[in-house]
Amino acid sequence: MSDTMIFMDLVHVDTITVNSLELGDLISYNDEIVEVLFIECDSTGDNYDIEIVNDFGEKEMIQFAYTDKVNIYFYLE
């Protein structure tokens, strides 16, 4: 049985506000493409706590203001 390798390109799709993020989204942060694991808005709606993970499995909690924008990416075959 032969193995097939599929090459997928990571493509910048849009720039969105953090309140539009969903779990599993790929965003740019600190010159890396990271995956969104957790999103929580504070009681005022002004700040979003977001847990991300990079390609090495390192997790980090970051905070954005509701006016901040992030670049979102998708894989294309």
Major sheet size, sense and barrel closure: 6 strands, antiparallel
What is the number of E strands? 6
Overall shape: elongated
CATH structural fold name: SH3 type barrels
Structural class: mainly beta
Please tell me how large the radius of gyration is. Answer: 14 Å
Distance between the termini: 23 Å
Which CATH class applies here?
Mainly Beta
Strand order of the largest sheet: 1-6-2-3-4-5
Helix content: under 10%
- The topology string of helices and strands comes to EEEEEE
Name the beta content range: over 45%
Outline the structure in words:
It contains no helices and 6 strands. It has 77 residues and is mainly beta. The protein has one domain: SH3 type barrels (Roll), CATH 2.30.30.30. A 6-stranded antiparallel β-sheet has the order 1-6-2-3-4-5, with no helix packed on it. Strand 2 (26-29) and strand 3 (32-41) form a beta hairpin. The two termini are 23 Å apart. The mean pLDDT is 91.
Task: Give a quick rundown of the structure.
The protein has one domain: SH3 type barrels (Roll), CATH 2.30.30. 0% of the residues lie in helices and 58% in strands.
Note the topology.
Elements (H helix, E strand, L loop, with lengths): L8 E9 L8 E4 L2 E10 L5 E7 L5 E7 L3 E8 L1
Antiparallel strand pairs: 1-6, 2-3, 2-6, 3-4, 4-5
Notable features of this structure?
mainly beta; six-stranded antiparallel sheet; 77 residues; SH3 type barrels
